[in-house]
Amino acid sequence: MSIRIPRSVALGAATVLAAGSISMIGSVAAYADSPSPTIGTLAVNPATGADDELMSVVSSGSCPGGTNLQTLVFGQGFPVDGYGVSLNQAQSVFPPDAQGRLTVPLNDTMRSFAQKNGFTTLSGKYEFHLRCRAKIGTTYFGDFVGAIWFTSPTAYTSTDPNAPAATATTTALTVTPNGSATVGSDVTLSATVSPAASGTVQFLDGTTAIGSPVAVTSGQASLTSNALTEGAHSLSAVFTSTDAAFLGSTSAATSYTISPKGAAATTTALAVSPAGSAAKGTPVQLSATVTAGAEGTVDFKDNGTVIGSQAVSGGTAQLSTSSLAEGDHSFTAAFTPADPAKFAASASAAVAFTVTPVVTPPPSGSTPPAPVSETITTTVAPGALVISVAGSNVTLPPLTLNSTSTLFSTTGPIQTVTVTDTRAGAPGWSVSGQVAQFSSGANAINAQNLGWAPNLVSKGDSLKVTLGGQVNPANAVEANDTGVLGLKSARTLATATGLGTAKFGADLTLLAPTSTLAGTYQGVLTLTAI
């Protein structure tokens, strides 16, 4: 099937300026050196969207100082030192969530911000900085930094379309001493990040930061503190990647108790019988062993929920249960002293356990009935292969003379191409493109002079996509040249196997000889899916 972009608009209007009026069009985005250090990452919500949508930014942590917040955007069309897209407001207006993250809405759309800065076409990368700052002046405490990419003038994504997919990480937290400590004693929090990636770890007590972010070295980060207050705590570790190839991650929360100063430290160990697993309904015994002489109670927990409490007698406490549900369980034992001033609380390590279904054997000597059958009928619809484009108009900037005055050139993206395949059997598909001669009245630009570099905007998880290779334009050949270079011949945009939807783009390059006469030249790009 083919889509032929109608009217004289397919590659828009590439204009050659009349002699004596050639000017340079476009500029490279520039960023000023930031006066504020990067202290974490920034996510955009929604992660993909349009230029007329409102969005928010979400930090990877809380501000280490300052009283106020402000969001700035950097990129092509905006000032090199950034443009404010949220007000300079008090940090108290944006309370952190349970992971210490801040959510700040932008006060308008990207389309509106562009118009306010005198341009209308959003293109490429735009970087956001959520800046922790003083209310007035230029005292800054650090920036959370993130970016979006406009893959067409009206659509953006939070993923660099030219970068490989980021690898997920996991973060595990261990606390020493295990379970509890006394007021004023050292507590060491150690995080393990896997796979090992560059970045920092912020240790948290609930939503409150413990110290400053710690650099990760060979997958490890640790911090020792004696500032935890008496009582119960929920400790966690948040990894923020500084390598675009890896994602951040957060550890599971670890319950911890700080006992009064002078209380003797205790240890609690847990054993489960039978070990490892048991059938549903089988009695399972949990046995806790506590430091000799310590009096108090033990709370037995299943996945963090208390399933029973027993007094410690002779250094042990036991609980038996036969009501565990089928599936995976994680048991812990938490000791609470009867006299907190004398003994400290402690908790065991987790013990994994699985409850399996009950298998009932048939009665001895019984004869099973003859099997019965049912015929199950269903239908697989033939499905369809559909191709569409985001818009039928592509306007390239005016052709400009190169530095050696040997040819004209211009560049720009095509409209996003969407291919959806629901066909039974998943036969796979291929999309190719071919352009006709550019014309302006009786004048022409050879179609060989157009090339492209395909790119992937997005795809479904079940699709395996291979992009077509870069097609270089001919070197500004004359209109009457009969060669077959560039997009004068059909060239592959992408191929795929599997079912689902994929979206593609391509960056165009158009050259023209210096003999090209002034005018508005138009050509038709035909995209075919088979």
TrEMBL record:
UniProt superkingdom: Bacteria
UniProt keyword terms in alphabetical order: Signal
Keyword check for Endoplasmic reticulum: no
Positions of the Bacterial Ig-like domain: 176-258, 275-356
Listed transmembrane segments: none
Keyword Signal applies: yes
InterPro entries, per the entry: Big_3_5, Ig-like_fold
Signal sequence coordinates: 1-32
GO biological process terms, semicolon-separated: carbohydrate metabolic process
Pfam families: Big_3_5 (PF16640)
Protein's name in the database: Ig-like domain-containing protein
Organism: Kitasatospora atroaurantiaca
Upper taxonomic lineage: Bacteria, Bacillati, Actinomycetota, Actinomycetes, Kitasatosporales
